[in-house]
Amino acid sequence: METEARALEGTRPVDDPAVEEKISFDKQAIPTHYDLPPAFFASFLGPWMAYSCAYFVDEDGSLERAEEDKLLLTAKKLRLKEDDCILDVGCGWGSFIFFAAEKYGCRAVGTTLSEEQARLVNTLAAERGLSDRIRADVLHVYEMDYPDASFDKIVTIGAIEHMEDLGRVFARCSALLRDDGLFLVHGMTQPWRSREETLAGIRTESDDLLEEHFGVGHWHSLWEVIEALEKNDFEVLDHENITNHYKLTVERWLERLIDGEEKIVGEITPEEKYREFIAFFASYIFSFEMNNTLCNQILCRKIKRGELRPNLPLTREHMILHSKEA
Ligand SMILES: C[S@@+](CC[C@H](N)C(=O)[O-])C[C@H]1O[C@@H](n2cnc3c(N)ncnc32)[C@H](O)[C@@H]1O
User: Fold this and answer.
1) For tag attachment on the chain, is the N or C end more exposed, with fewer CB atoms within 10 Å?
2) How many Å apart are CA 25 and CA 17, to the nearest integer?
3) CA torsion sign, 64 to 70 to 76 to 82?
4) What residues contact 98, with CB distance under 8 A and at least 6 apart?
5) 288: helix, coil or strand?
6) Least confident of 5-9, 144-148, 221-225
């Protein structure tokens, strides 16, 4: 894998005008959220800057510990090893790719639609002497133009919520993944009854709030995610429902925002944006509590009919985090 800086404008030709239109819409809408100053996100996220569900082995655990445990759990599920070549689709500020490179010696490419995020990842990689291992590209998920079969492991964490056509996304991921590779999809879904209403055009206040807050939101149901995976020849090896972990995560983000109000509003962000996040996080917590939003980790491998099945771990033991915070 080449890890030298590549042209940010690299694109995979997409010959469908409707898809082109969606790509340009996402490219202007998504960064309105993620291009906010990293200092603002740093004011409430943990030290890895993971902007997704953390993993609590203990209800009272700290965000710091839970954030790192989520990264560790993800790495364990993917059975990361030295020199694995990883693609992180929707990498944010690089939490997983830094973790994979620093703790396991992997090489990793992340994609994002935010120039700010990519700049920060590439700058931090250079500062930490990891430029030969880590790189972030500004690339829409539909445009991923890496050579086929270039990755040992592919992960997408907290990003399918922005992706409309999961069939297209997973078809590309399948092509990019080596035949013996692993693919982990971590993301929020809606229970089927809510999704059915959305598909029927019934919008709720929370749909409006979501779109306003993130620019683009697509809330699939779990079975739609699995259907799109299976239709693209992925076999689901493991599914873990982590909804309760996300409620605990957002509670901690909210606490930090409230505690930091004076500094954040005075120095980092306008009051209006600050209040929008407070309102959004409060509604998010409610949404988890009331079963309107769910969160999942789904581990897959590529399956080929008629091909000899590989040896796979017989139990889930290797992916369980046992220890509680000291
Ligand atoms: C909620 S953040 C999650 C970031 C990271 N995975 C983490 O756990 O911290 C969602 C990420 O998905 C990226 N994203 C959203 N839509 C995308 C798209 N269509 N193509 C590529 N990346 C996208 C955003 O730019 C952002 O980096």
Assistant:
1) C
2) 12
3) negative
4) 48, 121, 124, 125, 128, 130, 134
5) helix
6) 5-9
Show the tokens assigned to 124.
Answer: 């931090």
| Domain presence at residue 36 | yes
Measured in angstroms, how far is the CA atom of residue 218 from the centroid of ligand 1? 13
Q: Is residue 179 part of a domain?
A: yes
The residue nearest atom 1 of ligand 1, judged by CA position, is 158
Nearest-atom index, ligand 1, CA of 162 = 16
The residue type found at 164 is E
Q: Residues with Cβ < 8 Å from 168, sequence gap 6 or more?
A: 19, 142
| Domain harbouring 283, CATH code | 3.40.50.150
Confirm whether pTM is higher than 0.90.
Answer: yes
Cβ of residue 234 lying under 6 Å from some atom of ligand 1: no
Domain of 228? 17-289
The Cα-based distances of 42 to 50, 263, 267, 268 in angstroms read 10, 12, 13, 10
What is the C-alpha separation between 301 and 177, in angstroms, rounded?
Answer: 9
Ligand 1 center–CA 208 separation, angstroms: 20
Q: Could you count the other beta carbons within 10 Å of the beta carbon of residue 266?
A: 9
Overall number of domains in the chain: 1
In a domain, 10, yes or no: no
Residue 58 within a domain: yes
Best probe residue, ligand 1, of 30, 117, 213 (max atoms within 8 Å of C-beta): 30
Higher pLDDT, 277 or 7: 277
